[in-house]
Write a structure and sequence with these properties.
Number of domains: 2
CATH superfamily of the largest domain: FAD/NAD(P)-binding domain
CATH architecture of the largest domain: 3-Layer(bba) Sandwich
Radius of gyration: 22 Å
Largest sheet: 7 strands, mixed
Number of helices: 13
Distance between the termini: 26 Å
Oligomer: single chain
Shape: globular
CATH topology of the largest domain: FAD/NAD(P)-binding domain
Amino acid sequence: MSHENTYDYVIAGGGTAGCVLAGRLSEDPSVRVLLLEAGRSDRHPFIHVPAGFAKLTAGPFQWGFVSEPQRHGNDRRIPLPQGRVLGGGGSINAQVFTRGVAQDYDDWATVHGCEGWSAEEVQPYFIRSERNARLSAPLHGTAGPLGVSDLADPHPLSRAFVHAGQEYGLPYNSDFNGADQWGVGFYQTTTLNGRRCSAAVAYVKPARRRPNLDVRVHATVSRVVIEGGRATGVETIERGTAHSYRATREVIVAAGAYGSPQILQLSGIGDPADLKAAGVDVVHALPGVGKNLQDHCDLDIIYELNAYQSLDRLGSPKPATVLAGVEYMAFRSGPLASTVVEAGAFTYGNKDEKTPDLQFHFLPAAGVEAGIAAVRPGYGATLNSYFLRPRSRGTVTIADADPQRAPRIDPNYLADDYDLELGVEGLRQSREIMAQPSMAALVKKEHLAGGEKISTQDDYVRYVRQYGRTSYHPVGTCAMGVSDESVVSPRLDVHGLSGLRVVDSSIMPRIVSSNTQAPTVMIAEKAVDMIREDAR
């Protein structure tokens, strides 16, 4: 293999974690770093305009994954959008910046045996990553790469939702990543100067001029090469042509909760039964690969408004859209500077919990996300909710040895009745919040999916099973820990192999009580320190 195809570090996956790794590791000019992304570049303008989120949950910037029939969800196949573009989910998401609660990380350390991952130990990495426009020490950073800011001008509907939340009895919370998560308020978002700040923007863009960093898009990793118990490189398919790259120090798999187990299984690393069924020879038996899949199961209610005022009026070329475009181009302000998911809340479904267990997102628009119904353009708003700590567990398995075939993904939503119970409670609280005076004065009609009518407990249960969907937060399929079911050690090394790590949301032993992008950035920042320590 030529020197041109030899690197110190080969990173398989150019999503959030992969971009953090590439940017940080290439800070050392003595090492060569290769970042491989199966999707395309992030140059499209929709990616960088915050409101572009509304155009990105369907189309060429996501994988088009669909779940296996959900046994506890009326056998539905649920779309599972995940970013297929440099920056991954951080290039197509709604940019909500939440970290979870300290208990999440303390449980990783104590319950799951992940030494070094307690809340106190991971906090410095959150701070190191963050460039917060409003908040600072001791809980926030102001000098990191990842831009975090407040909405410049929240939509009047979002302000009304925050008022309604207070009328419902929630305290106003100005920092969901502060001392207490409980309450209602406006989300901070990963935006900087009116533009999306994905990990690709924050970490890779400043590093692109470094001669020691190569970034290749349209590069699907077909397998990790294992020689004598050590990862020595990867093979790829790039525009129909096979390539190979050698890693002298480490191969780092960072393809997300669906992609990382897929790459390991294609490489012969996984549960022997799963590999045999797919026709792949076992290189290294590791039963936990692809198990422990967790995701938040989201539920939506659409509201039709009395007046023509919501952001979905911008959905097609018309004077309002043109004016919004001009305002954004000139001043980085106006409707297109909105991330669409503007306000939210954290509440208790089970009053015996120590921290909130329900999360809500308010959108001053309807029909924004793929598969979610709309009402008359300009007259819609959406409130969604989900249970933060699901007990259900699913799987990701390859169907065969073809690296370009989608894996079989079974989130197994609502398998645990407690998840169903809390999903019902989130739906009930959504309706109660929206019935408060500040929102009730603006709402003409509640639109439940399918025209459903909900009044009894059985109605609620039926609705959750029929309309629960992904929150785009898959984690856990290469879980960190010390048990036989774990895949990587607390230092993120794949158990039983050398020179191979997994670094992304798949290593979470349990899902965090929040959106997952900020924790994924933290995981990658912490991994960089461990990788550098091991190289000494």
